[in-house]
Amino acid sequence: MEGPERDILRKMRQGNQRGNQKEPVAKAARELWQAVSKTVCSVEWLEEEGLLQFRGKIYVPQNADLRRRVVSLCHDTKVARHPRHWKTLELVSKDYWWPQMSRYIGQYISTCDLCLRTKLMRQALVGKLHPLWILDSRWDMLSVDFIVELPSFSRHNAVMTVVDSVSKQVHFIPIHMTVTAEGAARLFLHQVWKLHGLLKCVILDRGPQFVARFTKELYYLLGIKLASFIA
To answer: What is the tens place of the pLDDT at every residue in 18-72?
Structure first.
């Protein structure tokens, strides 16, 4: 082998000679191979010419630079011509192997600048963004968002924010990230409705099921009965 691949193999040999095996699977393989009794796992692993091999494929150590260079040889060169995920995986797996190799290659290709700029999108086009309408009166249209996974304080680790679309005034309500739609409705009643009255429109960053339960609980707390009619 010549060129960049030869330099990659040389660095792999140096790492194996020093015993720089960070992954548990590689450490266990070396111990099995050095053991007197050969097990099934030790037969699958082989050390030849200073390179650790798994089922005939060269094991690439847990080194970000080495793995990146191996994938680059099979993806970025003029001969490879930037293939997609599965073709790149096929080229790499002919000679090399490491745990979760397919995931690594997928992440590598998803951030390849040339592929992002030149490859065609094989999915439906995203629709155009439409701005939200803004009502004239304050506290008629609100947006409710949940900021979660914050440092815990007084049994709270999230914040429920209620923002007025006109004045941009905001209420910050400390909550726990496991709050339900019914719990959010009760907090809204005691923290927002008592100050500003019933709203005309609300925008939540949760799914339709959460919005439906939130609205139903809020109406129940206000004594509003929902009457369903079938035509």
So the answer is: 766 666 766 666 666 566 555 445 567 787 888 888 888 998 888 889 999 999 9
Structure tokens at 79: 């001969």
More confident residue, 20 or 15: 15
SS3 6: helix
Structure tokens at 201: 């429109």
b/e for 160-199, b at 16 or more Cβ within 10 A?
bebbbbeeeeebebebeeebebeebbebbeeebbeeeeeb
Strands 96-97 and 170-175: unpaired
- Structure letter (DSSP) for residue 127: P
What pLDDT is attached to residue 40? 44
Closest residue by Cα to residue 197 from 130, 146, 139, 119: 139
**For the structural domain made of 141-222, what CATH number should be given?**
3.30.420.10
Q: How confident is the model at residue 231 (pLDDT cuts 50, 70, 90)?
A: low
Domain ranges in the chain?
A: 4-118, 141-222
Instruction: Answer yes or no: CATH 1.20.58.760 is held by domain 4-118.
Output: no
Q: How far apart are CA 152 and CA 185, in angstroms?
A: 22
On whether the pTM is more than 0.85, the answer is: no
Q: What is the largest CA-CA distance in the chain?
A: 83
Among 92, 112, 109, which Cα is nearest to 101's? 92
